[in-house]
Amino acid sequence: MPVERKRRFQLGEPLAEIHEYLDLHQVMRARAEYLQISRTTIDTIAGVPDGYSGKLLAPSPLKCAGHKNLMPLLGALALKLVVVEDEEALAKIKRRLEPANHERQRFNNRNHETARAKQMNEAPRYRATADHTNLGAGFYSKGKEITWPGWPKTFSGSVEPVNEPARRVMQYWSKHRLDGRCPPSPYNAEHGRVFLPAHMPADSRSTRLQSLPREELPSMPKFRAVWRGEYGPRKVEIGEEVAFCGWPGSGLEPINDEAKRVVAYYEIYRDNPRLLSSPYCEYAQEIFLPPLPTAKRARGMNTSGDVGAEEFYAMREPAAPKPVAAARSTKRHGGTKRRAVA
């Protein structure tokens, strides 16, 4: 049953029972009216195109919220969904429920991961939302789809993401575009892939710990704090379990496989000058630990191969200049010949 328009919203109180999409539509309209916010404000907070919520929350909606925009729109209205068991519906269908044949069930089905990987292998594609849109490689008319490997920085006009890779790149660009440490391009040429680090390169003069992610994902490395510390604005107590996307220090103990892999990798490459600024990629939403090239030791050294950063830079110091040889002239067969004398 949808909520009444003039009903006062109470914190933590269930507002309505949603049986169809129109029920949710009425709740969202009533919530926007209660908060007294404009549709433009909702668009800005939710990160949707301009005018999207106006079409969505119209008395006769012109659009329906999809799986990508529903949660951001609910967050802009300070709403959340709570799933509970429907006892009446269960009583109606209970006789029709057949037990599953466990012999035919497939556990650890990874088809969804294959589909996701295939989708993320696509190039970011954008759609021009205005005429004369220019990303730096020509002008495009409104509605034209553009495959663009760089940042969605427009010199004129505007664009919106078409696929999931473009949405993640645009979201990252909107969050970090004013940071001077932001990568020059989402594509990392050294590793041949799009890499969006969860943390920018740390300032060597700063003693603050890197911030914790706002949203914890199952693919993030998780640690248990053995020291009390401040990670950005958040204080972490001893024994607290947190997701951390930076390089771990001695105050964090790994508790999942991703964190253990990050710790082992960091022990090997921590002094490598080509170490990435973060082990977690926000584009692929997974840890990325590529093998890094290291300098080889000089010939004659008894070693199996690699060196540390100090020795690497010591090997690159210029050699001492050789002494300049003096010269004297001798006459032979009427000519002049110069012979070097050390």
Structural overview:
With 342 residues, this protein is an alpha+beta fold. Among the domains are: 1-82, Orthogonal Bundle (434 Repressor (Amino-terminal Domain)), CATH 1.10.260; 120-188, no CATH class; 209-265 and 272-287, no CATH class. The protein has helices at residues 21-35, 39-46, 52-56, 70-76, 87-93, 111-120, 164-176, 257-269, 309-315, and strands spanning 125-128, 133-134, 139-140, 145-147, 159-161, 187-188, 193-194, 222-225, 229-231, 234-236, 241-243, 252-254, 280-281, 286-287, 326-332, 335-341. The strands form 7 sheets. A 3-stranded antiparallel β-sheet has the order 4-1-5. It has a 3-stranded antiparallel β-sheet with strand order 11-8-12. A hairpin with a 2-residue loop joins strand 9 and strand 10 (234-236). Helix 2 (39-46) crosses helix 4 (70-76). The longest helix is centred in the N-terminal third of the chain and has 15 residues, at 21-35. The radius of gyration is 30 Å and the shape is globular. Mean pLDDT is 79; it is low at 1-7 and 296-318.
